[in-house]
Design a protein that fits this description.
A hairpin with a 2-residue loop joins strand 2 (about 30-40) and strand 3. Helix content is about 20%, strand content about 30%. It has helices spanning about 15-25, 90-100, 165-175, 225-240, 295-300, and strands at about 5-15, 30-40, 40-50, 60-65, 75-85, 115-120, 125-130, 155-160, 175-180, 185-190, 200-205, 215-225, 245-250, 255-260, 265-270.
Length: about 300
């Protein structure tokens, strides 16, 4: 059995959490499945978007940084997020939708399998015709028809000075396998079938990226359960990596580690999802883990009130 069972979630920075919510729910048609705060800094929002349940492999999350500037693009960064759709017809749908809604995007690729776009803060995505996340469920309230909804995280692109260091981390420590070249990069996969956990690693020289709005903070990978997470933590330590040890995030448990280029990777426990498929739409109340509940009044005073779901 592989140590890692595909992607879990990706976490980014946003300067404008209200505009962020509008884009990901109304433009991309994702469900806001969790409205909480950064547990390490509860003065900022932490929003999770995903499928009907917020299943692992579908979750895009954002930390709010109201004073953040522009990202200064450089090396040693997670550069692009892949999202899967079911068909070429879905790419045509998204191309037309982006034209109508004024979203920056590319033409569909010459082979008819991908379409790139950016969100309002310059975060880069590519939509690909590929396998959906394992537990993806269409959301019935999405403004996007079920046949064309985004079906989870696909290939993640990483740019680093020393790709051989990232390769060692993936292949030797986490038991990924190399699938060969993908243009100028090398593609690695965590599962032998399904194609839902790909990472493509590119070599890039230059200065380190300076993060800001629209940059990616970390990539989280799925681990079966807490016992498996403990075994992987032990393995990371045995290979000389510094880890946080197991951290209880309330919604799942995690271990954080930086590979040798400095890319932050989270290992997070699997689960059925962040909410039930038939749960009511999230309103204005913020969900807090138990240890932050006594601080609720102060936390809510420090946050702007987000618009209610329509």
């Amino acid at each position: 059995m592989p140590l890692i069972d595909g992607h879990h979630h990706v976490s980014m920075y946003t300067k404008n959490v209200q505009a962020n919510k509008r884009f990901y729910t109304q433009t991309l048609g994702l469900r806001l499945v969790k409205q909480t705060v950064n547990q390490d800094n509860p003065t900022m929002y932490h929003l999770f978007y995903g499928d009907a349940t917020g299943a692992p492999g579908t979750e895009l999350s954002f930390f709010e940084l109201p004073r953040s500037g522009h990202t200064v693009v450089g090396t040693n960064r997670i550069a692009r997020i892949g999202l899967s759709v079911a068909s070429h017809e879905s790419l045509l749908y998204w191309q037309a939708r982006f034209l109508t809604m004024g979203v920056t995007h590319s033409a569909i690729s010459a082979d008819g399998t991908s379409l790139s776009f950016e969100d309002d803060e310059g975060l880069t995505f590519v939509i690909v015709v590929a396998a959906k996340a394992r537990r993806w469920q269409a959301w019935s309230r999405s403004p996007v028809p079920a046949d064309h909804q985004l079906q989870g995280i696909h290939t993640m692109a990483v740019e680093v000075k020393h790709p051989e260091r990232f390769a060692t981390f993936l292949e030797t420590v986490l038991d990924y396998r190399c699938l060969g070249n993908n243009g100028t990069g090398k593609r690695y996969q965590s599962v032998r079938q399904g194609g839902v956990g790909d990472i493509t690693v590119y070599q890039r020289e230059g200065r380190m990226q300076k993060p800001g709005k629209g940059s990616i903070h970390h990539l989280a990978l799925t681990v079966a359960d807490e016992a498996s997470l403990a075994r992987i933590n032990d393995r990371l330590l045995a290979f000389g990596y510094d880890t946080t040890g197991i951290v209880d995030r309330h919604f799942f448990k995690s271990v954080y580690v930086r590979e040798r280029n400095g890319i932050l990777i989270e290992l997070a426990t699997d689960g059925p999802g962040l909410i039930a498929a038939d749960a009511p739409l999230i309103g204005s109340e913020i969900e807090l883990p138990p240890f932050l509940e006594p601080q609720r009044e102060q936390i809510e005073q420090n946050l702007i009130r987000l618009d209610e779901e329509e």
